[in-house]
Automatic annotation (TrEMBL):
<dbReference type="InterPro" id="IPR014925">
    <property type="entry name" value="CGGC_dom"/>
</dbReference>
<dbReference type="Pfam" id="PF08821">
    <property type="entry name" value="CGGC"/>
</dbReference>
<feature type="domain" description="CGGC">
    <location>
        <begin position="2"/>
        <end position="96"/>
    </location>
</feature>
<protein>
    <submittedName>
        <fullName>CGGC domain-containing protein</fullName>
    </submittedName>
</protein>
Length: 116
């Protein structure tokens, strides 16, 4: 499975991504759902030219995009971003920590079975 992780731009000014990458490497939290090989082909923030980043993720064959837990917790754009990405990708609305998170969202309405 080729995947990408999108994180909050402001958080990237001070975060190394350890929580996201640790969860990925340990196959826990949001990454526990994958059974086979995972290829991380994007780890970037949502700032700048997001449409171009989406194009590049599509070109790379990415099927599943994780929206970081900090985006879920702090960004007012979370719901919009989730819906935008779901046009082209399976969207998982967090990376590390609890799936329930700290806010309710409509993500559960559009989340697919990632192992299909
Ligand atoms: S989800 Fe956690 S580890 Fe990932 S970028 Fe945000 S604060 Fe950093």
């Amino acid at each position: 499975m080729k995947i990408g992780i999108l994180v909050r731009e402001d958080t990237m000014m001070k975060c190394t991504g350890k929580g996201c990458l640790n969860a990925l490497l340990q196959r826990k939290d949001a990454f526990a759902r994958y059974n086979g090989e995972i290829e991380l082909l994007t780890f970037t923030h949502t700032g700048g030219n997001l449409n171009r980043k989406i194009e590049k993720m599509l070109e790379a064959g990415i099927k599943s995009v994780h929206i970081s837990s900090c985006l879920r917790a702090k960004s007012p754009e979370y719901e919009t971003l989730t819906k935008t990405l779901s046009v082209n990708f399976t969207v998982v609305g967090y990376t590390h920590g609890s799936e329930a998170g700290v806010r309710n969202s409509s993500l559960h309405d559009i989340k697919h079975d990632i192992n299909d």
